[in-house]
Design brief:
By secondary structure, the protein is an alpha+beta fold. The chain is 15% helix and 25% strand.
Length: 167
């Protein structure tokens, strides 16, 4: 028992001496701060920090997803036409109607629905626009982004398939 009491007494003395401060020392400031006319410190005039502004130029925004390209999918899909929701490769050119004021193309989507196309109509997922409607094909120009975010304009051609009996 005597060793147990000695250990408790030793631990409590160590805690009191080193672990629990009974008072705190307050240091006097090393330098006095002199105040100027308007109450500002005249000892330290800190230089103004330069503000950094990001000028992107032709760089892509690093915080925008490459997959979404800055568009909220929920908001954009509600405003798209049925022709803007399908991929251009899945469209089938069925026929072309020739008119003096401009040709009109008849296309079919994968779900079997038919639509008319005229010059300037938006079509495809990549913001494609019908550029020309010729006698046997439709030329669509669409914007494509590469992995660096650079946008290039490419041509996609829908060709009219001739049936074997109509040669």
């Amino acid at each position: 028992m005597k060793t147990g009491i000695k250990q408790v007494l030793l631990v409590s003395v160590l805690i009191v001496l080193y672990g629990v401060p009974l008072y705190a020392e307050v240091e006097e400031p090393k330098e006095r701060i002199e105040l100027g006319e308007e109450g500002k410190s005249i000892q330290m005039d800190l230089p103004q920090k330069e503000e950094y502004t990001y000028i992107p130029g032709e760089r892509r925004d690093p915080f925008v997803s490459l997959l979404l390209r800055g568009a909220e999918t929920g908001e954009m899909e509600d405003e798209l036409t049925p022709l803007q929701r399908v991929d251009l490769g899945s469209l089938k050119l069925v026929g072309i109607i020739k008119k003096p004021e401009g040709n009109t193309a008849l296309i079919q989507t994968p779900d079997g629905k038919g639509y008319f196309l005229r010059k300037g109509v938006e079509v495809g997922k990549n913001e494609g626009i019908v550029e020309k409607i010729l006698d046997d094909k439709v030329i669509v120009k669409e914007k494509m982004a590469d992995f660096l975010g650079q946008i290039t304009v490419s041509e996609f051609v829908l060709t009219l398939k001739k049936e074997e009996g109509n040669r």
